[in-house]
Amino acid sequence: MIILLAAVIVILLLVLNGYRNMRNVKSLPEEEFKKDLRRVQLIDLREKEKYEHGHIMGARNIPMMNFSMKMNSLRKDQPIYLYDHNGRLPIRAAKMLKKKGYSDIYMLKNGISKWTGKIKSKSK
Questions:
Q1: What's the total number of domains in the chain?
Q2: pLDDT value at position 21?
Q3: DSSP H helical segments within 1-124, as ranges?
Q4: Is residue 23 in a domain?
Q5: What is the rounded CA–CA span in Å between residue 73 and residue 6?
Q6: Is residue 124 part of a domain?
Q7: Which tens digit of pLDDT belongs to each residue from 27-75?
Q8: 53-63 burial, b if ≥16 CB within 10 A, otherwise e?
Q9: What are the counts of helices (DSSP H) followed by strands (DSSP E) for the chain?
Q10: Which of 23, 20, 73 is nearest to 43 (CA)?
């Protein structure tokens, strides 16, 4: 009985923490994400090699590994659109941005792995 109660408490805490993290960023489906790409700061959080293999047109690469050092280069007066491969890193990045006073933050639901739009890749 105690183990079951502990498991329920852990699950509730994980759900609550996930909900709290999602308040930092609004998840957008691809069609909504595509609408204003020319008027936003589009950030690809993946490592450089993955970015060069293929990224959304107009995206700037700031790998999550370097994000805390480079996020101050982002403007607070323009929306920030974040994406990675599967949609996990933008939640962490958005939390960091919120702590620094950024407020207009969005992420691509499910990441670029489900993207059907145009992709730009480095030609060899």
A1: 1
A2: 46
A3: 2-22, 30-35, 48-53, 67-70, 89-99
A4: yes
A5: 44
A6: no
A7: 999 999 999 899 999 999 999 999 999 999 999 999 999 999 999 999 9
A8: eebbeebebbb
A9: 5, 7
A10: 73
- Give the domain CATH number at 64: 3.40.250.10
Cα(17)–Cα(15) distance, rounded to whole angstroms? Answer: 5
Mean pLDDT score, 98-120 = 93
Q: Is residue 70 part of a domain?
A: yes
Residue 59 CB-half CA count within 13 A: 30
Q: Could you give the CA distance from residue 65 to residue 45 in angstroms, rounded to a whole number?
A: 8
Which token pair is 85?
């491969």
Domain containing 87 equals: 2-118
Q: How many CB atoms lie within 10 A of CB 103?
A: 10
Q: From CA 51, how far away is CA 54, in angstroms rounded?
A: 5
Question: Counting every residue, how long is the chain?
Answer: 124
Phi, psi for residue 84 in degrees, rounded to 5: -140, -155
